[in-house]
Predict the structure.
Amino acid sequence: DLEMLNQFKIKKIFHQAAISSTINENNKDVIRTNVNSFLSIIEIAKKNKCPLYYASSSAQYGNDNKPENIYGFSKMIMDNVAKSFQN
């Protein structure tokens, strides 16, 4: 529960969770779980001024550098979000 984490002083975050199925067809669920949760975790990292480590995926590159499924697309979004918060 992300709200529970706000009660603690966090020194580091290692985030490796995601819906990783490449055949999942519930786009809303994958985006909500992978991207929106990642945004919440970034906010916790910012609040605690701690580093956030997360697992990217080669699934975002697919053919012609385009994701072939919603999982890869969600990881591409997460990488772009991470880059915008990098500093």
Q: What stands out?
A: The mean pLDDT is 89. The longest helix spans residues 27-48. The longest strand covers residues 13-15. The two ends are 26 Å apart (CA to CA).
